[in-house]
């Protein structure tokens, strides 16, 4: 009877093949696990964990977000989003917002006439003095009588003397005195005399006044004189207190339509040197076409009135006729 076959031991070659298969399978599993771990750490693309964005693609940056990162507006206000097919959109180059230039102002070609600021006029050269008048309008054997600092207590007496000789004169009035005596200002005009601005308060030295103060003194006096005399009154000249003219106040006066008025004869009657001194100074200094400076206000003018009583007939006897200053 034949002997039954015994179980054959596994072939060494077969066992080796099985072991190799097991090893290779384990290696494949380990490799797959390694790739997944590396992807998470490196910031590679991965599925979103958010249920509402299932299947969407996001970027897990490994550095601080820059302008244009997801969810962060870029500098031009446009957020970066994912592209079609799950691909990320190309990076947006940030554009710096244009900031309007608020210092340069509108350009000449686009500025509106209603909004463009007018540039202040700047003289090309420093102001130069204008001509200060010291002669009569017609010249020849003429004389101009001028009276400062009124109207005052002596004004009416002087008006009466001038009327006796049919003489026309110029009255350089202080603004505050004109405002206080409007009736006398009107009488001056009614008699055919002319008016001159002599500042509001008679400050001295007038040429040292700052520009704004000089403007206030000159323009203010003109306004007061016109208000006292009546609308439409002409104030032809400006005489600086103490003769304190300079280029600035001369140009201020010119801008207000007034000529700067000086003189050629000064008997200093304001200092009350005595009637004979006043008369002799006028007689010695006067030349044809001259302008005589005297006063009807600013204090006691009794010497002036007395001197004028002598000078008026003397001037007529010398062949002088009476005129206004040049204008």
What does this structure look like?
- By secondary structure, the protein is α/β, with parallel strands linked by helices.
- It is about 35% helix and about 10% strand.
- It is built from eight helices and seven strands.
- Strands 1, 2, 3, 4, 5, 6 and 7 form a seven-stranded parallel β-sheet that branches.
- α6 (about 245-255) links the parallel β4 and β5.
- The longest helix is centred in the N-terminal third of the chain and has 31 residues, at about 10-40.
- The radius of gyration is 52 Å and the shape is elongated.
- It starts with 11 loop residues before the first helix and ends in a 5-residue tail after the last strand.
- Residues about 1-10 and about 25-125 have low confidence and may be disordered.
């Amino acid at each position: 009877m034949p002997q039954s076959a015994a179980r054959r031991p596994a072939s060494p070659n077969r066992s080796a093949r099985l072991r190799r298969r097991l090893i290779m399978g384990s290696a494949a599993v380990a490799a797959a696990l390694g790739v997944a771990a590396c992807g998470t750490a490196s910031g590679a693309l991965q599925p979103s964990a958010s249920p509402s964005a299932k299947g969407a693609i996001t970027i897990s940056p490994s550095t601080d977000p820059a302008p244009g990162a997801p969810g962060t507006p870029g500098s031009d206000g446009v957020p970066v989003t994912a592209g079609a097919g799950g691909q990320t959109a190309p990076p947006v180059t940030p554009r710096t917002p244009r900031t309007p230039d608020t210092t340069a102002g509108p350009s000449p070609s686009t500025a509106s006439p209603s909004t463009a600021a007018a540039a202040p006029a700047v003289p090309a050269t420093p102001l130069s003095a204008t001509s200060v008048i010291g002669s009569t309008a017609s010249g020849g054997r003429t004389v101009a009588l001028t009276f400062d600092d009124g109207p005052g207590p002596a004004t009416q007496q002087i008006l009466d003397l001038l009327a006796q000789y049919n003489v026309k004169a110029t009255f350089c009035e202080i603004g505050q005195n004109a405002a206080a005596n409007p009736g006398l200002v009107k009488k001056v005009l009614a008699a055919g005399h002319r008016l001159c601005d002599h500042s509001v308060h008679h400050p001295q030295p007038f040429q040292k006044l700052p520009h704004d103060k000089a403007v206030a003194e000159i323009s203010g006096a003109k306004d007061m004189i016109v208000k006292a005399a009546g609308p439409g009154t002409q104030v032809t000249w400006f005489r600086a207190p103490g003769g304190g003219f300079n280029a600035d106040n001369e140009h201020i006066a010119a801008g207000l339509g007034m000529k700067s008025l000086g003189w050629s004869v000064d008997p200093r009657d304001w200092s009350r040197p005595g009637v004979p001194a006043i008369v002799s100074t006028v007689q010695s200094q006067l030349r044809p076409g001259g302008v005589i400076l005297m006063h009807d206000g600013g204090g006691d003018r009794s010497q002036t009135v007395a001197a004028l009583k002598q000078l008026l007939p003397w001037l007529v006897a010398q062949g002088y006729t009476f005129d206004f200053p040049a204008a």
